[in-house]
Amino acid sequence: MAEPPTTQVHRPRAHELGLIGCHSCGQVSTRRGMFDSQACPRCGAPMHHRKPNSIIRAWALLIAALILYVPANLYPVMFTQMLGQRSESTIMNGVIEFWRSGAWDIALIIFIASVAVPCTKFVAMAVLLVTTQRRSTWAQAERSRLYRFVELIGYWSMLDVVVVALVAALVKFRQLSDIEPRIGILFFGMVVILTMLSAMSFDPRLIWDAETTNESSR
């Protein structure tokens, strides 16, 4: 005997109930009018149905970070002088030198923080922005989890800068040796900041707005 088809239960959305949430404190209030012009009654921050120009700002910040990632890898990130020998190292040179000297754990940390994490964020944010801009309903739950993953790894993106600072502090204690950061670490720091701002500018609720568009077009 064939089972009767299951009917999907319509869950009302916030805008259908006349509600709007604050991005700063999370307070949910009754929406007044059709325009985003009211302030949060709790913290006074402006409330928006969706973050204004979310996709455009996220794209701009992501592209700027991608452009700066090139000099971050080409320019040296630190200058070392030990026993009269001077050398400047890029990110990958530093990874190779630490690996050859036996400090594979530091080499692995620098590689993950400087290469794996930024490239993962570039690809993940591009996927989120392209699919959201096309109003795709493909894997919406997985894309929401992908966004939370991008936010999570964003907090660990400064590991490379921290490692350079710690190595510099340790070497400073030794005699006949010196270490200084170079301009490459500045470019890398800007890449980290721009990718974090790109993720913060993206509104993940836009992922689910495609359902509303498809339902209204039927």
TrEMBL record:
<keyword id="KW-0812">Transmembrane</keyword>
<keyword id="KW-0997">Cell inner membrane</keyword>
<feature type="transmembrane region" description="Helical">
    <location>
        <begin position="183"/>
        <end position="202"/>
    </location>
</feature>
<keyword id="KW-0472">Membrane</keyword>
<feature type="transmembrane region" description="Helical">
    <location>
        <begin position="55"/>
        <end position="72"/>
    </location>
</feature>
<keyword id="KW-1133">Transmembrane helix</keyword>
<feature type="transmembrane region" description="Helical">
    <location>
        <begin position="106"/>
        <end position="131"/>
    </location>
</feature>
<dbReference type="InterPro" id="IPR007498">
    <property type="entry name" value="PqiA-like"/>
</dbReference>
<dbReference type="InterPro" id="IPR051800">
    <property type="entry name" value="PqiA-PqiB_transport"/>
</dbReference>
<protein>
    <submittedName>
        <fullName>Paraquat-inducible protein A</fullName>
    </submittedName>
</protein>
<dbReference type="Pfam" id="PF04403">
    <property type="entry name" value="PqiA"/>
</dbReference>
<keyword id="KW-1003">Cell membrane</keyword>
<feature type="transmembrane region" description="Helical">
    <location>
        <begin position="152"/>
        <end position="171"/>
    </location>
</feature>
